[in-house]
Amino acid sequence: MHQLDAMRIFVRVTETGSFTQAADSLGLPRASVSNAIKQLETKLGTRLLHRTTRRVQLTQDGQACLERCKDLLADVEEWETMFVARDEALTGRLRVDLPATLARTTVIPALPTFLAQHPALRVELSSTDRRVDLVREGFDCVLRVGAVADSTLIARPLGHMRQINVASPAYLERHGVPTTLDDLSRHRLIHYTTTLGTRPAGWEYFDGERYAQWPMEGVLTVNNADAYQAACVAGLGFIQAPEGGVRGLIAEGKLQEVMPEFQAEPLAVSLLYANRRHLPRRAQAFMNWLAELLTPRL
Questions:
Q1: Which PROSITE patterns match (predicted)?
Q2: Mean pLDDT for the stretch of residues 63-91
Q3: How far from 245 is each of 33, 65, 129, 177, 226, CA to CA, in Å?
Q4: For the segment 265-295, what is each residue's pLDDT rounded down to a tens digit?
Q5: What CA–CA distance (Å, rounded) separates 187 from 210?
Q6: CB count, 10 Å around CB of 163?
Q7: Has residue 87 been placed in a domain?
Q8: Is residue 86 included in any domain, yes or no?
């Protein structure tokens, strides 16, 4: 195996913390990954990893080797593309993660145009409300809605999503249309949380100085944006959701906006990628396309 390939495998093993996960993400047999590490250790004359049945841990020499490997691989990738024409076909695999509703309503419908322009590109698209681990799971970039907590990643802000309050016409017919915060005591809120078992927030609104929470009862808590919308259409209560995700349901008459003066805080939308000196051209192209697609909607 070429030393550069062995170095790439070594870096991937350290990112995932597992020979098996590294093999799966690289599309290689586990034996090939194990042999690559052995080859690298033999070549360098030192042990790079401590292996146990549960995890893989860097040795002191392994940590020094990892930093050098990252620099060398970044230099090689930059060197390989120094004289590549900007219009040369993009190739290889691109792994991205998008919020489920945004992927379904906006990105996937536009994706045929992007792939027609780059027919040699292969995209692996994850669409989930779970916060994926970009580095550990091998994503080239992820689109995040909401605050960015991981300071080790590079964030490219795209804008903000306006949130609105909606309920089904059938729910409003049964319970009435609220106009004040006090009216909400007679209504239900469908609660959304990324982790079931945590205490959901109430109705969010701007009180003139800051965004605050108005406690509300609810019979249902969900952790998925599609379930959140479906529960609202079914008449189980109000939701506070990005306008773009429910615009179609409003146009179809399945949802109705209420209390526009008491909206939740707009959600930041960002593209995130790993802290690398040189981002692959395929990732750059996809991120630029995604920004061009989404920014006018934000």
A1: HTH_LYSR
A2: 74
A3: 42, 46, 14, 22, 9
A4: 999 999 999 866 567 788 889 999 999 999 9
A5: 24
A6: 19
A7: no
A8: no
Which has the closest alpha carbon to 261: 174, 183, 146, 193?
183
CB atoms within 10 A of CB 286: 21
Show the tokens assigned to 221: 């808590």
Of 260, 156, 25, 1, nearest to 11 by C-alpha is: 25
Asked, for residue 197, whether it belongs to a domain, the answer is yes
Q: Residue 264 corresponds to which tokens in the numbers above?
A: 């939740």
Per-residue pLDDT at 63 exceeds 80: yes
CATH number of the domain encompassing residue 132? 3.40.190.10
Taking the C-alpha atoms of residue 223 and residue 83, their distance in angstroms, rounded to an integer, is 47
